[in-house]
Amino acid sequence: MQVSGYLKLSVAVALATIALKTAAWWVSGSVGLLSDALESLVNLAGATFALAMVTIAARPPDDDHPYGHHKAEYFSSGFEGVLIGAAALAIVWTAVQRLLNPQPLEALGLGLALSVLASVLNGALAWSMLRKAREVHSVALEGDARHLMTDVWTTAGVVLGLGAVAATGWTWLDPLLAIAVAANILREGLRLVRRSVGGLMDEALDARSQAAIQQVLDGFAHPAIRFDHLTTRRAGQRRFADLHMHMPAGWTLRRAAALRGEVEQALMSAVPGLRATIQLLPMDVEAHLDDPRDPT
Ligand SMILES: [Zn+2]
Fold first, then answer.
1. Which of 22, 73, 208, 252 is the most buried (most CB within 10 A)?
2. pTM assigned to the model
3. Separation of 68 CA from ligand 1 center, angstroms?
4. Spacing, Cα 268 to ligand 1 middle (Å)
5. No. of H helices and E strands in the chain?
6. Is 4 exposed, middle or buried (0-12, 13-18, 19+ CB in 10 A)?
C-alpha cells in the first residue's frame, strides 16, 4: 500500500475512534476518557492534513519548484504538532474544572470496553504505518503513526487508572489522569514541531547517513584525488549531498566524468534516496573565490 493509502486508512480509523471514545466518555462522564477522545479528534485533523501534504510532496518538480515538493511534509508534521499542543491545553483546562467540581462516574465498564476496542484498532494501524514510514522515510506518515501510538499508550493508562477509580471510588483520580495524558500529548507535539523546524532549516543528514557518505568517499581515496566542501541536507524523503572532487589538472574531462559517475553511483547505493551533486575541479582551484580550503 502507498503512503497515501495508509493515510486514507488512518482518516477512516480516526473517525471510528472518535465515535467509540466519544461514546465511552458519554456513557461514563469521565474526563479521562474525554481527553482521550479529544486526542483522536486531533488525529483526524492531523491525518487529513498529512494526506493533503503527502499528495503535494509526491508531485514531480515543476517550473515553480524545480527541486520538487518534498519539504511540504514538514508543514504537515509542524501543523500536527501545534494541534496536539492545543488539544493538550484544552484537556488540562477541562480536568482542572473537574478537580474543582468532582462528579461521580457511571457505566465505567462499558466506557472502558469501548476505549479498549478503539485502541486495538489504532495500535494495529500505527504498527503497520510505522513500518511503512521507516521503509520510505516519510515524515508525514511517521508523525501520524507516532501520534496513533501515543494514543494507544495514553488510552492504556486511562483504562488502568479508571479501573483503579472503580476499585477505590477515588473520583479525583480521573482528572489527574486526564492531566497526565495531556502532558504526554504535549511532549509528543513539541517533538513533531521540533522535527519540522529541523527540516525547514535545512538540517544536515543524520549521523549515520553522513558516516555512510564519508565511508564511500574514503573508499575512493587516492593521492591525486581530494573530496572537500561536503554539505548535506534533507527534504522530506529526498536527501541531498553537495561536494567537490579535486583531481589532477591534466585529466581529460571524460576520465574525470567517469570517476564522478562511479562516486555518484556508490553514494546512491550507500544512502537510499540520496541525490549527490559533485563539482569537478582541478587540484589547486576552488569553485568559488570565497571558498575556504578544507583543512584536510
Ligand atoms: Zn573544494
1. 73
2. 0.63
3. 27
4. 21
5. 8, 3
6. middle
Q: 286-294: which pairs have CB atoms within 8 A and are 24 or more residues apart?
A: 286/244, 287/229, 287/244, 291/229, 293/228, 294/228, 294/229
237 CA from centroid of ligand 1 (Å):
27
**pLDDT at residue 220 is higher than 90:** yes
- Per the model's pLDDT, the better-predicted residue between 227 and 296 turns out to be 227
| pLDDT (mean) for 174-200 | 82
Q: Residues 194, 145: one domain?
A: yes
CA 56 – ligand 1 centroid, Å: 36
CA 232 – ligand 1 centroid, Å: 15
Q: State in Å: Cα 247 to ligand 1 middle.
A: 10
Which one, of 13, 282, 286, 277, lies nearest residue 145 by Cα?
13
Domain boundary among 184, 200, 216: 200
Reported confidence tier of residue 214, pLDDT bands at 50, 70, 90: very high
**What is the whole-number distance in angstroms between the Cα of residue 200 and the centre of ligand 1?**
26
